[in-house]
Amino acid sequence: MAGVIGIVVVGLGRAGKARVRDLEMKVLGESVVLRGVISRRKVDEVTCLTWEEALARNDVDAFVISTENSTHEEYVRKVLDHGKHVLVDYPFCLSAQSGKDLYDLAGSKGLVCHVENIALLVPLHQQFKQTTKSKAVPLQEGLVRLDARLSNDWIADDSCAGFPSFAGVGDLECMMDLFGKLTLQEAQYVYEPDLRSLTCKFSTSDDRPITWIRERKRDGKARERFQEFKFEDGSVLTLSPTGPPPPPTPGHKGLFARDLELFVAEIRGERSHAEITEEKKLVLDGLQLAEDRKIVVGRSGFSKHGIKITCDSEGKTTNREVTAVDTEEAELLRN
């Protein structure tokens, strides 16, 4: 696609604001233009549009979806149904089958459907990948952990953010990007008034263990991520970034701008089929892995004690502690 690409940003959270900033600064040049935003928030600096207005405009070619996770599937489908390209922040959607269906819909219409994961673009991740691929010795064990505060924002609400395995699917994509296919061995979810904790134990294709923990506490840290991978030769790779990515320095593209650049390049036919296919496979594999241990927890009755469930790789419950569940029983669903 030659010429100007007009873009509408949907949602003005952290990611949405970053997209708007980059487009207004024209970090991708004069041929990528912000046409407006769709948001519940009142803003004076940019043109605000309704869905109907934005979808009907001939000068709007693409949408960027930066809203609550639970809305992604609906909004992506709406955009594709109206013949527009779409970039959506991860998670793509909240089921593996929905992800496949949306990719198929985009393909049938000749449209681009691109899923963000800026963690894959972080220089340290790229360095990690290069180092792990070049190592002559195997991984011994790995740990990936997120500690965050359990706030009243939507990101801490499973009904908006999705179950933690989906809300954190970007981590799964990064792990698979480094070590290939992962298999679930055990999963445990703790749901209490002041605590949400998911712990999953994976194995790589050569049976090396990786533990993944996502924990939110009411009085916990604002946000802290930690990754550590130990190898048989005694070497250790550690990554511990904190907080969101900083604004880009003048004259440089930040992570969100680089992701937007990939989206625009795909619209213009400037990316290889092999690269795009690999990217989509990683997204779908991540969703499938997230769904393999999806634990659906009844919301009523967890005001005092909460729940613990442990499952094996077959999705069967091997150990369970349930207390004060009024009307709904927790169950582990393996699709």
UniProtKB/TrEMBL annotation:
Residues 157-239 form the Biliverdin reductase catalytic domain. One of its GO terms (biological process) is heme catabolic process. It comes from the Eukaryota. Residues 6-116 form the Gfo/Idh/MocA-like oxidoreductase N-terminal domain. InterPro entries: Biliverdin_Rdtase_cat (IPR015249), Gfo/Idh/MocA-like_OxRdtase_N (IPR000683), Gfo/Idh/MocA_Oxidoreductases (IPR051450), NAD(P)-bd_dom_sf (IPR036291). GO terms for molecular function: biliverdin reductase [NAD(P)H] activity; nucleotide binding; zinc ion binding. This is Biliverdin reductase A.
